[in-house]
Amino acid sequence: MEIHKSYSDLEHLSNIELFYSKPEYFKQNEIILEGDECRHAVKVMRHHSGDEIFVTNGDGKIFYGIINKILKDTLSVTIKKEFTYKNKFSAIVFCLPKLKNPERFEFALEKCAELGITNFIVFESERTISKSSKIDRWHKILLSAMKQSLQSFLPVISTANSIEEIKNIEGKKFIFEQNTGNVFRGLPKDIMGKYYFLFGPEGGFSQKELEIFKDNELFRLADNRLRSETAIIKCASLLTTIV
Known about the structure:
26% of the residues lie in helices and 27% in strands. By secondary structure, the chain is α/β, with parallel strands linked by helices.
């Protein structure tokens, strides 16, 4: 099996279909696809034994292989090449508010994943309207976005009950608030530790929430007011361009 560590090895494969298999389904030179991934490969993509296929383990590796066996609910792949990547955004954590409109929230989540963000915390603030958590649905959106954008890291998502929970996590915080003079210019070249980016819900953060942070932790992304989902995507685009 060949092993590659340069992204250029896959630059010409922009038209491939990428599949996902959990790390525990990788055994030496073989990969097992099951469930939805297997059905998509066989029923939708019409793959047969002997076809080429690309699979990621969601942990920084993409494998090129040949399908050697198709059963009712699983298929096996013989690995021929392995491509290894570094997560450039492992130190970045996006802290997203639950939005009143779930479609806007899910759109922002999807686009951030496509841009390369791999860590998310969904939190409730004082002005949060929606109280429901849909971790399973969000996970599926992130999985689909990873495959669609040919990423090799499956984003991780968790929840927090308040902004105070995030405040108490060790790491540098960036709170986006329109009424501040500090303009966000990006991150330093040498990233040290974790960086948490907090975005307010539709009504913004309450004054009580803002007071738990220092003035030098408050930033604005633009001169004009942005919708929550717009600010989230703008920040992701900026960060993934400069990191």
